[in-house]
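Pair request: fold both.
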Amino acid sequence: MPKVTLASNSKFNKGAPCVELLKQNGFEVSLTLNDAFSQGLTGDDDVIEKLNGSDAVIAYGEYYTSKVLDNLPKLKVIARLGVGFDKINMKSATQNNVAVTITPNGNHQSVAEHAITLMMSLAKSIVKKDTLLRNGEWNGDNNKPIRGQTLGIVGLGRIGRSLATRARGMEMNIIASEPYPDMKFVNENDIKLVELDHLLSNADFVSIHSPLNEETTGMFNKKKLSLMKKSAYLVNTARGGLIVEKDLIDILKNHMIAGAGLDVFEEEPTSPQNPLLKLDNVIVSPHMAGNDIQSQIDMGNEAAQSIIDLYNGKWPEGSIVNKEVKETWNW
């Protein structure tokens, strides 16, 4: 019986739908049920120990280094919850003939909803006015509207498109920077495609939805952030490494932009001493944008189905990251 390990935290339990799905298809399932492990806070040796003997893993936030992958000879599949795979050494995974999958359909709506929540909380000063009211101050300062404002979406993949459809319903003007756009979607939703510098200079809200890789790491540095309007807000629900954090801190401290809504950080969990947490023009959340109740179920099932398909000889084209292993991969 093939063994699947679910790198789970307290959000999953033995009765999770993805666990039942795997069991119904003949898999033995074990759960780590360890928050530190699933957050990537344990070392390589612990990952190797917990995944020893596993044929597949439903991965969360733990790291798959070359050392880890070299020491898990039975591992055939890493089915990553979500769409990011920056914690996996893809070169090593491919060399070790490990298929890496993501869940492109599981959480894009949740992330889009979270991005809008951050945007609206910033525009309407929800956190600030909540604090003032609890401290006895009845503050009636005007808020910023959403309708009629220009939203700049950086990355028009599934999440960016989900955000665009919701923003259109709120009567926002949408511009986007995307190297490989779905032109049918762009035209149907009246989206104007622009270069990144133009987007940053003209948007009232900038929402980041780019993947993290060698080309995009640190792409939002002081030079780029300085292009934004003083009245604009920055929202990041993608990856913390896309922004040079010290540059953003300087931009925010000097009120060169109006504020930021951040779900992700350069290092996670971020330190309680992170200066971003001390700024009153910043709203933060703990990398939870894609993790609402429904998306957890959907991602788990999608990851499990990829494992089931691969075991049965069906190649899940839309989910495989390292497609080059197809010719040599076997189970």
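--- second member of the pair ---
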Amino acid sequence: MPLPYHAGKAFLSKEISDIVLKEANKNENIKNYAEPFCGMMRVGLEVMKKSEEDKLFKKFYFSDVNKTITVFFKELHRGWLPRVSVVTQDKWESYKKSDAVSAQKTFVGYSFGFGGQYFGGSKPRQKPYTKTFSAEWQKNYLKNRKEVIKELQHHFTSSKFSIKEKSVFDLDFKNTIIYCDPPYITTAWRAKTKWDEESEEQFWDTVYKWLEPSKNNIVLVSNSEKHKRVEGLSIRTVFKKDHISQGSYRAFGDDRKRSEMLFKITRKQS
């Protein structure tokens, strides 16, 4: 992925993207790929790379409500590349205190934030296994991250690529395979102030809308467990991997592991 990102699909992107492509190829009317909770686009990038040769998709629609994400990809779409410069402790603290948002700040915040969290931690990420600040290590690390972005740059500058700062509830699609990785309401404790049970129910109402037969969409949803809602929808498990080590909102003492599951959602036949 372009930058480290907490709870991204770094270890599952190849498997999930294979399922996306398999499902899309079953329906000749599917023309587009959409990812409404895009984060750092780990799955979407795999889909773009794997579908380059066969030109399966005409458009790749990405969106997120997090402006630190969207401002970054909008600048990449314009051809921007990040600067490589040392981030002192003073600079780190200045960034954290400021409400300003920019692509360069995103580059720094996720690259050096603890656990892929935006400016996570009281100081920028240090050289592994040492607490000693190293400007040389910082520069080399950021150079490597920049090289990764350069290798992916043609995907972001493509006319097929679209990025919007938009809520999932305001999106609609047609002839599109939609991959959703929403906050996991039972385990994503960091997102609980932004994603509650009401949001979860509204999300499933949105999915139901997307699956109106005339729209000809396919919907795949990642989560750690099968959702309890069944009214009007069929939720079928198409992928499961047990015991993925992740953070949890539960009390200290649990094993901090969970299952990762992927579901194909369809409307129930009336």
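Observation on the second member. The helical segments are 13-25, 42-50, 67-77, 89-97, 103-112, 135-156, 197-210.
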